Amino acid sequence: MKKKWFHNKTRMIFQLAVLALIIGTLIFAAFRANLNPDYEKYCPFGGIMSLGSKLNLGTMSCAISETQVFIGVGILLLIVLVGKLFCGWLCPVGTVSEWFNKIGTRLGVSFTLKGIADRILRLGKYVLLFFAAYLTMTSSELWCKNFCPYFGPVSGFNVDVTLWASLLAIFAVVIASMFIKKFWCKYACPLGALSNVFANILITGPIIIIYVILVLAGVKIGIFWLLLALVAATALTEAIRYKFYSISPFKIRPDKNLCTSCTVCDNHCPEGIEVSSYEDAVTHPDCTLCLDCVKACPVHDSLKIKGGKWLPPVAIVVMIVLALLFAKQFPMTTLSERWGYYDEADSLNTVGKVLFEDLGTIHCYGSAKSLQNKVMRNPGIVGLDVWASKKKVILYYDTSRITETDVKRFVFTPSRYNMRKGLPPEAVPKYLVGYRVGIWELWDGVDNLHIYRMLEKHPGVYGFATEFGEPVYAKFYIDPEL
What we know:
Blueprint: H1 9-30, H2 44-57, H3 66-81, H4 85-90, H5 92-107, H6 115-121, H7 124-137, H8 151-154, H9 163-179, H10 183-187, H11 190-199, H12 201-216, H13 223-241, E1 252-254, H14 264-268, H15 292-296, E2 303-305, H16 311-329, E3 335-338, H17 342-347, E4 351-356, H18 365-375, E5 381-387, E6 392-398, H19 404-411, E7 416-418, E8 433-439, H20 445-455, E9 461-467, E10 472-478
Antiparallel strand pairs: 1-2, 3-5, 4-6, 5-6, 7-9, 8-10, 9-10
């Protein structure tokens, strides 16, 4: 029977919406020089890894916000309670991989890898998950950025990306997936491996519970052993059993009394699962509840899912809405530290705080840590809270030792720019006029750089310098004849 490519229009709407959002943002950013969109804002894997870093070290990773964290947590809950819906309905990498495989199928070069080779290759994604999770949770830096096939191209392969690793991942998503069905998803995707850990919750859940009990009992057992146990248990279950032990009641169920063994469902499964071979419920680890098999089946109700065909899309929408609402209600700091005289000042009610917003130099965990190292040199400053995704900082200080103005002066970064370097002597005017202007919230070097970029277009402006004040004073040197 000829395969119908667009028979599951509901799922395709979700897939196209995600891709349209990404591509639209890229196009919009290309025409707005000052726009720097956060392409990670809704990345669930980064949010989950950052949450692990928060639980292990008390700090968030990079510029990950609570939005990514709650979307990541929501996806994990969906996996446990319903199924691997993100993989089949939302993941842009999975969508691209699937569509390129359709091209390979049309060309007659696509096949589903089976047997011992398939079982061994499935272990690869767990190796990547282990290193990505361990290195992130022990450093608060997102290690997955090095090779992510999504982050690499949308970021323009910036400094966080290891070029060869990212290109290799893109090759796996695009080229390898044309020949081997869902190559990236089955054999290399760390988020797919993490999804499987939670899809196998009856095996992995007790491991997590035992670890938590041991930690609460005072046993010193590192995160290394928890991660190793989780990935090993899930990898072995997948490779040996081709089955997960889930608590979700929502599985694809064939009715053998109605089934005609036409294998249309097998042909339409994007994961290459032989759906028709299951007697009771499809328990294959690759099943994402995409419902392609259900929609393609020519016999009414021969394939069903508890809750009906609308369960997956409705569950996804509810999860996203709840995740965004929780993210609004529960902001999470990238870095929150107290030191020095904080406890003493707190007991004497002499702790003051200063809010700084739109600090351009604060863009990730590393820059937040650099700010902490700087302000700790001032004995009057006793703590800070940083929200890197919002470029927002609160500094705490002992009011008995320093004032709010002292804190602002310490944070302030003076700048001096000569905007016409290299001009021949005859091109330099005999004298310049200086204008002194007060500018509020001009705290760091990035603010000054923005001013520089605006003024360098005007030939009459030769330079400017800033000095601390409230507001900050900026002196502009201008050729009065232009």
